[in-house]
Amino acid sequence: MTEKKKLGRNQKDTNDDMINLVDNLNQKDDLKYNRRAFLKTAVGTSVALGAATIPFSVKAMLGIAEKDYERVEIAKLSDIPEGDSVTFYYPTESDPALLIHTVNGDLKAYNSACTHLMCPVFYEKTQDVLLCPCHAGYFDVNNGHPKAGPPQRELPLIEIEVDNGIVYAVGRQYRHG
Ligand code: FES
């Protein structure tokens, strides 16, 4: 075997420089086109995924509930005098909630797990507020917003309806992430 033939298996015979040069050009082109195809696919996929989430983003921005909530009976209105409240669970058995008949005669309902560390809040009628006893967190009974203490977020609002003297829960609104 000549010296030339002892070259490595992948090394080409350098006599044919033009062919090697063309091979190198082709390799570079291949890389360039593969990279371009990959980028096109990646960008296309991102755009498609982004477009697919638009309906959800619009719903979230408009505060439209994504799910249909059941209509669930809470209590007879005649059983809740002004200044009183009743506990219930909504929308599931693991979501404690409170229906309040305020001292001013309004009906309000919220999930009752404090947005600080989940202790149950209760209606404190002498001050007309929702109070979390764990760390003295206060919420406005009119809108569920925190008023004092550690809680930073509103209580989720339970939408209610009164029909024939019965109070029903019909939906829930998270007003804050
Ligand atoms: S858990 Fe309600 S204030 Fe801390």
Structure in words:
This protein has a 4-stranded antiparallel beta sheet, with no helix packed on it. The chain has a 3-stranded antiparallel beta sheet with strand order 1-10-9, with no helix packed on it. Strands 2-3-4 form a 3-stranded antiparallel beta sheet, with no helix packed on it. It contains 1 helix and 10 strands; from the N terminus they run H-E-E-E-E-E-E-E-E-E-E. The relative contact order is 0.12. The protein is an alpha+beta fold. 26% of the residues lie in helices and 29% in strands. The structure holds FE2/S2 (inorganic) cluster. FE2/S2 (inorganic) cluster (FES) is lined by residues 114, 116-117, 119, 132, 134-135, 137, 149-151. FE2/S2 (inorganic) cluster binds at residues 114, 116-117, 119, 132, 134-135, 137, 149-151.
Radius of gyration: 33 Å
Range of helix content? 25-40%
Number of strands: 10
- Separation of the first and last Cα atoms: 77 Å
What are the segments in which pLDDT stays under 50 over at least 5 consecutive residues? none
Output the helix-strand order: HEEEEEEEEEE
Q: Look at the structure and give the mean pLDDT.
A: 82
What small ligands are held by the chains? FE2/S2 (inorganic) cluster
- Helix and strand content put the structural class at alpha+beta
Overall shape: it is elongated
Beta-strand percentage range: 25-35%
Strand order of the largest sheet: 5-6-7-8
The major sheet is characterized as: 4 strands, antiparallel
